[in-house]
From TrEMBL:
It comes from Skermanella aerolata. InterPro entries: Caspase-like_dom_sf (IPR029030), Caspase-related_regulators (IPR052039), Pept_C14_caspase (IPR011600), Pept_C14_p20 (IPR001309). Residues 316-365 are annotated as: Disordered. Keywords: Signal. It comes from the Bacteria. This is Caspase family p20 domain-containing protein. GO terms for biological process: proteolysis.
Length: 427
């Protein structure tokens, strides 16, 4: 068994049931469990320029859906009455269907957040005319709602729309226009329902210069791929359109799907027949792991862990996933001829910090001795020097009183003005 066949076979096991092909009863209505589609293509508009591709797009999608087992309610270039009748027929059949798909190609626009799709005989002149001359997306969703398992609405209807310009001219400039080109975002949709736009909301899609629009071309490319889960299918459609239009157009999907995978074409085993649905969860897990047992691909291990996080092989899947991550780590090659960077020279050592200064011992200050001649305090050594000189002078003096006054002064006694005068004149 090839790895691809094993993976898709294991993925189908999770579906739990086979989406069988159509079978009709005596009344011609699809039997219970059938897959049903409504396909409409409107291009030959009576009151505006024709669109060349919608009918081609719709016919090609109809053929593809029939090849993969859908019974199709189809209509091309429909008037309002014919379009409403096709929708009612589809709605009655959807009550017995497991899967309901709607594909519409043609003009569409929005008013006050509601999306409308135009029949070929539309004569829309005012905003309110849309309620009488067009089919709303809400009506389509209501008719598809009875399908038990899955509802898909595919809208290639965001083409350049002349009806919006016509309504704008009729509305004048006195009030804000509430009709816009492109389609509005889809708010609340029912359970297991997917709405796919050919481009983003409020944007225009390309009608294409070939026989099909870029969106329908991408849809036809991937619609018949076996084992392609529905979210992945529309993801690939988006990528193909983005590439084909050089990024000018990006399809968008709105929806509320459950945790179980959905397939338009269930995966098959190697013999080409559809894989059986096992009866219980342990059996599904065992068959799933059997299909992946020899695989070491990270995507396979992640797929197992997604659906069986507590399965008996979860530990082994984790080990393989971690091992594949280790093998995938790139080795860093050495750079050739890389010059060795020389080591930087050490910076010169800083001198050691100076030792802290020792505090200078404080001594009791010596009483200042005032010079006789200037009354300026004298340092101790100066006082001793002068004292010696004074004694020499006094010893040679004529008046003994000079020595007495000087000694008194050296002892710190105060001198009178008379003593000072005597010393100046006689000593």
């Amino acid at each position: 068994m090839s790895r691809f066949a094993a993976v898709v076979a294991a993925a189908f096991i999770l579906l739990g049931q086979v989406l069988a092909g159509p079978a009709f009863g005596a009344s011609g209505m699809p039997a219970a469990g059938d897959r049903l589609a409504l396909v409409i293509g409107n291009g030959r508009y009576e009151n505006v320029a024709e669109l060349p591709n919608p009918v081609n797009d719709a016919r090609a999608v109809t053929a593809a859906l029939k090849r993969i087992g859908f019974s199709v309610v189809e209509g091309y270039d429909l008037s309002f009455t014919a379009m409403a009748e096709k929708l009612k027929t589809f709605g009655r059949a959807a009550e017995k269907a497991s899967v309901a798909v709607v594909f519409y190609a043609g003009h569409g626009l929005q008013m006050q957040g509601t999306n409308y799709f135009l029949p070929v005989d539309a004569k829309v002149q005012r905003e309110r005319d849309l309620a009488y001359d067009a089919i709303s997306l809400d009506m389509i969703l209501r008719e598809a709602e009875p399908a038990r398992d899955l509802r898909i609405v595919i809208l290639d209807a965001c083409r350049d729309n002349p009806f919006a310009a016509r309504i704008a001219r009729a509305g004048g400039t006195t009030r804000a226009l509430q009709v816009s080109e492109g389609l509005a975002q889809v708010g609340n949709v029912g359970r297991d329902t997917l709405v796919a736009y050919a481009t983003a909301a409020n944007a225009l899609a390309d009608d294409g210069s070939d026989s099909h629009s870029p969106y329908t071309t991408a849809l036809l490319k991937h619609l018949e791929t076996p084992g392609l889960e529905i979210n992945l299918l529309f993801g690939r459609v988006r990528d193909s359109v983005f590439e084909a239009t050089a990024g000018r157009q990006t399809p968008f999907t709105y929806g509320s799907l459950g945790g179980d995978p959905f397939y338009l074409i269930p995966p098959s085993d190697v013999s080409g027949t559809r894989a059986p649905a096992p009866g219980n969860a342990p059996e599904r897990e065992a068959l799933f792991w059997q299909a992946l047992e020899s695989s070491t691909e990270p995507a396979d291990m992640l797929l197992y862990l997604k659906y069986f996080p507590d399965g008996p092989h979860a530990g082994e899947a984790l080990r393989r996933l971690q091992g594949s991550g280790d093998r995938g780590k790139p080795e860093v090659a050495a750079l050739p001829n890389t010059p060795e960077i020389p080591a930087a020279e050490p910076a010169p050592a800083l001198p050691p910090p100076a030792p802290p200064r020792k505090p200078t011992a404080t001594t009791t200050p010596t009483p200042a001795i005032v010079s006789i001649e200037s009354d300026v305090p004298l340092a101790k050594d100066t006082i001793l020097q002068r004292q010696t000189k004074l004694r020499e002078r006094v010893s040679g003096a004529k008046e003994p009183r000079c020595a007495t006054i000087m000694e008194r002064a050296q002892l710190g006694e105060g001198l009178t003005d008379a003593d000072k005068s005597f010393l100046r004149n006689n000593c």
